[in-house]
Amino acid sequence: MKALIALMWLLHWLPLPILGRLGEALGSLLYIVMKPRRRITLINLKLCFPEWNDQQRETVAKQHFQAYARSALERGVLWWASEARLRRLIHVEPRVPLEILEAGPTILLCPHFVCLEIPGIAVVLNSALSVCTLYSRQNNQTVDAALLKGRSRFRPVTLLSRERGVKPILRAMREGLPFIMLPDMDFGTRDAEFVPFFGIPAATLTAPARIAAATKANVVPVIATYLPGYRGWKVTFYPHWSNFPGDDILQATRDMNTFIEARVRETPSEYFWAHKRFKNRPAGMPDLYADAPAPAPANNDSL
Predict the structure, then answer these.
(1) pLDDT tens digits, residue range 204-260?
(2) Closest to 173 (Cα-Cα) out of 203, 150, 138, 207
(3) How far is CA 138 from CA 14, 109, 135, 143, 246, in A?
(4) Coil/strand/helix, residue 92
(5) pLDDT tens by residue, 263-294
């Protein structure tokens, strides 16, 4: 792994158009060889976009692998590039909402798009604030050390363990740290409800609504996507949600999924489809990822 980290350090000196194309080439290869993840991706796309034909789903699946591999290689830019270079590459729209972030507890709702490392950097580069977020220790110590150092090189970042529960999160937020929350993976049925995502019951954490209710936090959705032409990344801070969660935690969780679904439809290839989003099912409903022949990649020369 030390060799991999060294390679990423070397590659980060490349212009982004070259590095991005290298990442996409790697993604095309991974699409062919990573059959289990390709299969999960295609199942998810078939569930969420039944109106698409097989060729459309395969095209987006391959684009997703390309986007994800590209984000992995470009992480070296985030870890080692100069502050000036990052400021040129990260475009914030319309701006970092400092008046919201500084007014009190804030949740930055950051769904699982492939560029999800960017919003935290955008905040620290454009404010005097640090942030807090959940962190799972990596199995490899070299990767873990590089990731921790890369995330905190401009300003210390408070990393919280999911296993410690919600109390450290509440404490950090009350101390003035915006909480970057990734709300849209299937972590099981504990502290989750089955609410629709693309019309399919999905085990969805109610924590965003519950934490917002407990802290009276403003909730600001933020999503990072690629700029066209390998020019960098766009970070969009959406208007904060007023009266969230209101009096109904379940309805607030449904509304959150509806918002995420709308953003996914805007850039479907950049959403994290390789995760079993529908792994847990309501009682009596079938396993959507039950063993079946893995779809073969299409011969698509247009990509």
Answers:
(1) 999 999 999 999 999 999 999 999 999 999 999 999 998 899 999 999 999 999 999
(2) 207
(3) 27, 23, 9, 7, 37
(4) strand
(5) 999 999 999 999 999 999 999 999 999 975 54
- DSSP, collapsed to helix, strand or coil, labels residue 197 as strand
CA Rg value for the chain:
19
Tell me the per-residue pLDDT of 75-89, one tens digit each, with 9 for 90 and over: 999 999 999 999 999
Q: How far apart are CA 7 and CA 33, in angstroms?
A: 21
CA dihedral sign, ordered 121, 266, 69, 162: positive
SS (H, E, C) 239-289: CCECCCCCCCHHHHHHHHHHHHHHHHHHCHHHECCCCCCCCCCCCCCCCCC
pTM above 0.85, yes or no: yes
Give start and end residues of each alpha helix (H) in 49-140: 54-80, 83-89, 98-101, 118-125
Sequence-ordered list of residues with C-beta below 8 angstroms from that of 293, at least 6 positions apart, any chain: none
Sheet containing strand 132-134, strands side by side? 90-93, 233-237, 218-226, 106-109, 179-181, 132-134, 158-160
CA atoms within 13 A on the CB side of 54: 7
